[in-house]
C-alpha cells in the first residue's frame, strides 16, 4: 500500500514539473495611497473580462508589492480592493515580448463622503481586516447540500481531521459563532455538521481575546482561535435547513434534520436525529465523559488503566462516512434547540437545550504482554458491554449592560443523566510457557441517575480613568448522583496453592457535592503602557459519599465494612496573586506570581479516621506574545500549577470492581507541582497561501503522582497512588502547507515527535520508562471548481518504549493510516463520492500484524426545482470489515485490542433542502463565486 501511495505522489509531482514548463506569464505591482504609504494585505483579484468570473487572486505584502504567477489567459480584468479605499479596476493584456507585466505603483483613493451611486465590483475571495481573515464563501465552491464542514475544508489554512476537529492557521478552533453569537454553547461540531454551506456569506477567522481583556482593554496575551459564520441576507428572511431519511440492509436506518430561522435580532434552530448506524448525535467529549464516569464508579467499573503520561500508542476504530469513529454497535437518538435573542442593544440572551439517548454494545478481545522484574505474563480478556445513557443539557446566558461603566452577566447550566450498564468479562493470566496462573469471570451491573446544576454571576465596573477596572465573579454548583450495582465474580487460582473464589455483592453509592467561590480582579494603569492586575480567588467544595457494599451469604446480605465507605470532605482553596503587563505595540508581556494555599479535610466515618492535609505553593507565570504582522506570530508561555490529590486517592479504602485488579488509596499522597513551557510560531502568507506552524511543549512534574503496582503469588494486582521524584514530557510538531496553483492543488506536511520519561513502581522496585513517538502526516488535495475534489493522505506513527530494569523487554510498534477521497459532480445533477481507508498495525515485540481496508462509495441524483432534493445510494464498509483494532504501549505492557463493529451497510436515502421552498429570497441570490455583485455604496 505504501508503494502505491508513493507512486501516486510521484505522478502528481511529475505533472507539476510538466505544468511548470508551460509558457505562462505573471503580473506585478505595488499598491499605495496618494501619500506614498504602502497598503499591506490589499486584495488583488483577476477576472475574465467576458463574464467577470474569478480567475485567481492574491494579497499584497507588507511593502504593498504583489506578484501573481502562472497566468494563461491573454486578457484579464484587474481589480484591487482595500478597506476604506475606492476599488481600482484596469484591463490588462498578456505581454508579447517577455512573460512579465510590471504595473509599477498603483495609487488608491480614499472613499469620499459624497459617494452615493451604484457601482459594480467583483467580490474579493479573501479580505484582511486588521486581525481578521475574511473568506467570501461563494468563492470556494462546494457540492449541493454540503454542510459548513465541507466549506471549511476548502479554505486555505483551515484543516479538519476525520473526527471533525478544526484547526485554523495551525491552532485548534475552540469556538464557532453564527453572526457573532454562540451556536449550541461551545461545541463547534454542532454548527459545522448541521448548518448548510450555501447559507454562509462570509467566514471570518480571528484570534478572540479573553473576556477579561475585552472588558479592561488590557491585552493579557491570551487568545482563542475562533470562526464566525456570517449568514447571507437571503437566509435571514425565512426558514432554511434540510431533512434526510434513509433505510438500508440489515434494517439499518438513519433520520436527521435541522430547521433554522435567523434574523438580525434572533436565532432559532432545531436539530434532530435517530439512527442505528453508529452516527453520533452529540459531542464525542460527552460520550467519553459518560464512559469515564461509569467506569469510575466502583460497582460497575472496569479494570483500572495505568499510564505514564497519556496513551502511548494509537488506535483507529473504523472510520464511517461522516468521519466520526465509533467502535461497537450504537443506536443514537438526539434532539436540540438553540435560541439566541437580542432584546435591545443592552440585553442579550443565549440559550440551548440538548437531549441524547444512546445504546452502545461493545465486544472486545484484549491481549496484553506484561513486563515485571520477577517474570512476565500474558493477560487475555474477552468482554461485552451494553451501555445505555440518556442525557439532558440546558444552558442559559443573560448579558446586560447597565450603562457605559457597568455590566452584568449570568451563566446557568443544568444536566440530568440516566445510566444503565452491564459488563461481562472472562480473563486469564498465563506465563510465557503457556501455564495458566489464574482465570476469572465477572459480571458488573450499574444503574443510576446524576444531576448537575451550575450558576455564575459576573459584575464588571469601569472607572473614569482608562484601564482602571474591577470585576467580581461568584459561582455556585451542586452535583448529586445515586447509583446501584451488583458484582458477580468467580476466580480460579492455579499453582501450589490452587483455590477458587466466588464473590456475590450488591452495592449502592450516593454522592453529593456543593461548591461555591468567588474571583475578584482589579486593574490599574501604571503609565507607559504598563498595567497592574491584582487578583484573589476563593473556592470551597463540600463532598459527601455514602458507599455501601453487601456480600451474599446464602440468601442473606451481610454488610462488608472493608469495601464500604462513608466520608465527608471540605476542600478550601485560596489564591491571591498579582500580574504586571506591558503592551508594546507588536508585542505584549505578562508576568505574575500567585500564592496558593489549599486545605483538604476529610472524615472517614466507617474507619473513624481523619484526613487533614494542607499545601502551600508559589506559582510564577509569564507570557510573551510577539506579532511580526497580522498573519505572523510568536508566543512563549510559562506557567506553574498544582495538581491536588483527590479524596478518593487519599482514602485507604479498597475498590474491588475487578477482583484481580484492586485499587487502594494512599492518605500520605502529596500534591504534584507542574512546570509547563510552550512555544508557538504561526505564519500564514495570504498572498501565496503558504502556512508554517510550529509548536513545542515541555511538561516537567515534581512530586508526580503515579500508580504503584504490587503483584502477589496469585497474580492479583493491587494498585496504590504514590509520589515519585519527577516525570517529563516533551513534544513538538510542524505543519507546512503550500498550494500548487497550476494544478488547483495543495500539499500539507506535518512531522511530529513526543518524548515521555516517567517512573514506575512494581513490587516496590523503581523503574524509569522512556517512550519515544515519531510520526507525522502528509496530505495532497486537488479541487477543480465544484466538479472534482481528490484527497490523498497518510499518517505514520513509530513508537518505542524502553525499560531500565530489563532492556530486553523494550517495545517497538508501527501504526499507519492511508486514505483516499474522491468527489465528482457531473451532468449538473449527479454526484459520485468515494473514500478508501487502509489501516496497518505492526508490532516488533509481538507477532501482531493487522491490516484493515475500508471502502465507502455513494452515488447521488439531485431532483426537484433548484435541486432541492437529493436521492443517494450509499455503501459503507463495502469490504465488510466488522472489527476495529488498536495497539498501545504503556508503563509496563504492550497490548492489542480487537473490537466489534458494524459490517457492510447499503442504504438508500433522500435529502430535502427546505430553504428552496420556504425562503422566498433564495431565487434572487445568484449562485457561484467571483461573479458581479450590484451594491449601493454610501459613505
UniProtKB/TrEMBL annotation:
Signal peptide: 1-20
InterPro entries: Beta-barrel_TonB_sf (IPR036942), CarboxyPept-like_regulatory (IPR008969), OMP_b-brl_3 (IPR041700)
A Pfam family recorded for this sequence: CarbopepD_reg_2
Localization annotation: Cell outer membrane
Alphabetically ordered keywords of this record: Cell outer membrane, Membrane, Signal
Outer membrane protein beta-barrel domain segment(s): 461-757
Name under which the protein is recorded: Outer membrane beta-barrel protein
Amino acid at each position: 500500500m505504501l508503494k502505491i501511495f508513493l507512486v501516486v505522489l510521484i505522478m502528481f509531482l511529475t505533472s507539476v514539473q510538466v505544468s511548470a514548463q508551460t509558457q505562462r506569464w505573471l503580473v506585478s505591482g505595488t499598491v499605495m495611497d496618494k501619500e506614498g504609504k504602502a497598503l499591506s494585505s490589499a486584495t488583488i483579484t483577476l477576472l475574465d473580462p467576458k463574464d467577470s468570473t474569478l480567475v485567481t487572486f492574491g494579497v499584497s505584502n507588507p511593502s504593498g508589492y504583489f506578484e501573481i504567477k502562472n497566468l494563461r489567459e491573454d486578457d484579464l480584468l484587474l481589480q484591487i480592493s482595500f478597506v476604506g479605499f475606492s476599488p481600482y479596476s484596469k484591463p490588462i493584456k498578456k505581454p508579447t515580448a517577455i512573460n512579465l507585466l510590471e504595473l509599477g505603483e498603483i495609487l488608491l483613493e480614499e472613499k469620499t463622503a459624497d459617494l452615493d451611486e451604484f457601482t459594480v465590483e467583483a467580490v474579493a475571495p479573501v479580505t484582511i481586516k486588521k486581525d481578521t481573515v475574511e473568506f467570501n464563501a461563494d468563492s470556494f465552491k462546494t457540492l449541493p447540500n454540503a454542510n459548513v464542514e465541507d466549506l471549511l475544508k476548502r479554505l486555505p489554512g483551515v484543516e479538519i481531521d476525520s473526527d471533525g476537529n478544526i484547526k485554523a492557521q495551525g491552532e485548534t478552533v475552540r469556538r464557532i459563532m453564527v453572526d457573532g453569537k454562540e451556536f449550541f454553547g461551545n461545541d463547534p461540531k454542532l454548527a459545522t455538521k448541521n448548518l448548510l454551506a450555501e447559507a454562509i456569506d462570509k467566514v471570518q477567522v480571528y484570534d478572540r481575546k479573553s473576556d477579561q481583556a475585552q472588558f479592561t482593554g488590557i491585552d493579557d496575551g491570551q487568545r482563542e482561535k475562533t470562526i464566525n459564520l456570517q449568514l447571507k441576507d437571503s437566509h435571514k428572511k425565512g426558514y432554511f435547513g434540510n431533512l434526510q431519511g434513509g433505510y438500508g440492509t440489515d434494517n439499518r436506518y438513519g433520520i436527521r434534520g435541522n430547521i433554522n430561522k435567523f434574523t438580525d435580532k434572533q436565532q432559532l434552530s432545531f436539530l434532530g436525529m435517530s439512527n442505528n448506524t453508529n452516527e453520533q448525535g452529540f459531542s464525542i467529549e460527552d460520550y467519553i465523559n459518560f464512559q469515564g464516569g461509569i467506569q469510575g464508579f466502583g460497582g460497575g467499573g472496569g479494570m483500572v488503566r495505568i499510564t505514564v503520561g497519556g496513551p502511548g500508542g494509537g488506535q483507529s476504530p473504523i472510520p464511517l462516512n461522516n468521519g466520526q469513529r465509533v467502535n461497537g454497535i450504537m443506536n443514537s437518538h438526539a434532539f436540540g434547540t438553540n435560541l439566541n435573542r437580542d432584546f435591545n442593544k443592552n440585553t442579550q440572551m443565549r440559550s440551548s437545550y440538548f437531549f441524547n439517548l444512546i445504546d452502545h454494545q461493545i465486544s472486545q478481545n484484549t491481549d496484553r504482554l506484561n513486563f515485571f522484574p520477577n517474570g512476565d505474563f500474558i493477560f487475555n480478556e474477552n468482554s461485552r458491554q451494553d451501555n445505555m445513557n440518556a442525557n439532558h443539557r440546558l444552558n442559559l446566558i443573560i448579558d446586560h449592560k447597565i450603562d457605559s461603566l457597568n455590566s452584568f452577566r449570568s451563566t446557568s447550566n443544568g444536566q440530568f443523566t440516566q445510566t444503565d450498564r452491564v459488563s461481562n468479562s472472562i480473563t486469564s493470566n498465563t506465563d510465557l510457557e503457556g501455564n495458566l496462573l489464574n482465570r476469572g469471570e465477572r459480571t458488573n451491573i450499574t444503574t443510576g441517575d446524576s444531576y448537575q446544576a451550575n450558576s455564575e454571576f459576573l459584575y464588571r465596573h469601569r472607572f473614569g480613568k482608562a484601564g482602571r477596572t474591577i470585576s467580581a465573579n461568584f459561582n455556585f454548583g451542586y452535583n448529586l448522583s445515586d447509583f446501584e450495582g451488583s458484582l458477580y465474580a468467580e476466580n480460579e487460582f492455579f499453582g501450589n496453592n490452587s483455590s477458587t473464589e466466588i464473590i456475590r455483592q450488591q452495592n449502592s453509592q450516593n454522592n453529593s457535592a456543593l461548591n461555591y467561590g468567588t474571583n475578584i480582579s482589579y486593574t490599574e494603569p501604571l503609565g507607559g503602557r504598563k498595567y497592574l492586575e491584582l487578583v484573589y480567588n476563593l473556592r470551597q467544595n463540600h463532598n459527601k459519599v455514602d458507599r455501601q457494599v453487601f456480600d451474599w451469604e446464602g440468601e442473606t446480605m451481610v454488610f462488608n465494612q472493608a469495601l464500604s465507605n462513608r466520608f465527608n470532605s471540605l476542600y478550601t482553596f485560596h489564591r491571591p496573586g498579582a500580574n504586571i503587563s506591558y503592551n508594546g505595540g507588536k508585542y505584549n508581556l505578562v508576568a505574575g506570581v500567585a500564592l496558593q494555599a489549599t486545605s483538604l479535610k476529610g472524615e472517614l466515618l466507617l474507619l473513624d479516621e481523619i484526613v487533614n492535609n494542607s499545601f502551600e505553593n508559589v506559582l510564577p507565570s509569564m507570557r510573551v506574545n510577539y506579532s511580526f504582522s497580522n498573519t505572523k506570530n510568536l508566543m512563549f508561555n510559562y506557567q506553574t500549577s498544582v495538581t491536588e490529590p483527590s479524596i478518593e486517592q487519599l482514602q485507604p479504602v479498597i475498590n474491588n470492581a475487578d477482583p484481580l485488579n484492586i485499587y487502594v488509596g494512599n492518605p500520605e499522597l502529596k500534591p504534584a507541582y507542574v512546570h509547563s513551557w510552550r512555544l508557538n510560531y504561526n505564519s500564514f502568507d495570504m498572498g501565496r497561501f503558504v502556512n508554517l506552524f510550529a509548536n513545542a511543549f515541555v511538561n516537567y512534574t515534581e512530586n508526580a503522582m503515579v500508580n504503584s503496582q504490587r503483584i502477589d503469588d496469585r497474580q492479583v494486582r493491587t494498585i496504590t497512588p504514590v509520589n515519585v521524584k519527577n516525570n517529563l514530557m516533551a513534544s513538538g510538531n510542524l505543519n507546512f502547507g503550500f498550494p500548487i496553483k497550476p494544478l488547483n492543488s495543495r500539499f500539507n506536511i506535518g512531522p511530529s515527535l513526543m518524548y515521555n520519561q516517567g517512573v514506575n513502581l512494581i513490587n516496590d522496585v523503581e523503574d524509569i520508562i522512556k517512550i519515544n513517538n515519531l510520526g507525522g502526516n502528509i496530505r495532497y488535495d486537488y479541487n477543480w471548481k465544484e466538479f472534482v475534489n481528490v484527497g490523498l493522505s497518510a499518517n505514520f506513527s513509530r513508537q518505542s518504549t524502553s525499560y531500565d530494569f530489563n532492556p530486553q523487554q523494550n517495545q517497538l510498534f508501527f501504526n499507519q493510516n492511508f486514505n483516499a477521497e474522491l468527489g465528482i459532480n457531473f451532468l449538473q445533477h449527479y454526484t459520485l463520492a468515494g473514500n478508501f481507508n487502509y489501516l496497518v498495525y505492526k508490532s516488533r515485540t509481538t507477532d501482531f500484524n493487522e491490516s484493515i481496508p475500508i471502502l465507502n462509495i455513494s452515488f447521488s441524483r439531485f431532483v426537484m426545482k433548484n435541486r432541492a432534493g437529493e436521492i443517494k445510494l450509499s455503501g459503507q464498509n463495502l469490504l465488510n470489515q466488522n472489527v476495529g483494532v488498536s495497539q498501545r504501549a504503556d508503563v509496563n505492557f504492550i497490548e492489542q485490542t480487537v473490537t466489534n463493529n458494524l459490517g457492510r451497510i447499503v442504504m438508500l436515502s433522500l435529502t430535502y433542502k427546505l430553504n428552496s421552498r420556504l425562503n422566498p429570497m433564495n431565487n434572487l441570490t445568484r449562485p457561484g463565486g467571483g461573479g458581479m455583485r450590484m451594491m449601493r455604496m454610501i459613505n
